[in-house]
Amino acid sequence: MSRVPARNRKPGLVVLGGNEAPRAPGIVHLVGAGPGDPDLLTVRALRVLQAADVIVHDGLVSADILDLAPAKAQRIDVAKRKSRHTLPQDDINQLLVALALEGLTVVRLKGGDPFLFGRGGEELAACRAAGVECHTVPGVTAALAASASAGAPLTHRGSAQAVTFVTGHAAHGEPDLDWASLARPNQTVVVYMGVSTAGLIAGRLMGAGRMASTPALIVENASRADERRILTTLAGLAGAAEGLKGPALLMVGEAMAMADVAPVADAHSSYQPLERSLRS
């Protein structure tokens, strides 16, 4: 295997290819793999995946989806978890460029959608700056899968005239969000990466005027065989999120009362998880 040319090399970063004559530049596809269920992969995503020479994938991409790739395709895991990155984002950007410059068809396979809290924009910008052809294949984001499986629409006449996607995670400190705007009634607020900050988020929303009794739904591992749904209220959100291990969404709003789970009897009392394993 050859290494990244010296001008681009960083320690530990390895790319494919031999010492043969230089080939024409390859191409990078930023592909949304959806929330995990291979049935939710788009036809275009499947077609691009099956043409890949190398797949640079996130940890949230399910094994069932990776199994759809050609056996000959090299797989590179760049999984990110809280406080633990296989590769920093800058190195991932460099890796995609280096692989494409080796003449390879590169699929950057990302959970959900590349442009919704997926840092796909940074990877696209890096490819453009290096003169590498790059295309984006949208994917089903987790909020859409969670809403559909729970039967809790993100928008609903009379109870949710708007939906807002926000992140509960910030590089330094709490997320910089317009809490007053998010606290308005009759809208759905979907929080990605918010499990560890559920208490802070609930407190900020209630402090800005959102009713403590506003329905709140947590969906863990949306669309997967081990999906779990927990219905509570904004006041009970922090307790409901305790102990969750898988990727989870926090969904706050009046329309979440339609979710297909039994509600918590008293969100102000000691929280007792109400969950349902699906496809059992």
From TrEMBL:
Residues 28-237 form the Tetrapyrrole methylase domain. One of its GO terms (biological process) is methylation. Its EC number is 2.1.1.107. CDD domains: SUMT. It is an enzyme of class 2 (transferase). InterPro entries: 4pyrrol_Mease (IPR000878), 4pyrrol_Methylase_sf (IPR035996), 4pyrrole_Mease_sub1 (IPR014777), 4pyrrole_Mease_sub2 (IPR014776), CobA/CysG_C (IPR006366), Siro_Cobalamin_biosynth (IPR050161), Uropor_MeTrfase_CS (IPR003043). Belongs to the precorrin methyltransferase family. NCBIfam families: cobA_cysG_Cterm, PRK06136.1. PANTHER family: S-ADENOSYL-L-METHIONINE-DEPENDENT UROPORPHYRINOGEN III METHYLTRANSFERASE, CHLOROPLASTIC (PTHR45790:SF3), SIROHEME SYNTHASE-RELATED (PTHR45790). This is uroporphyrinogen-III C-methyltransferase.
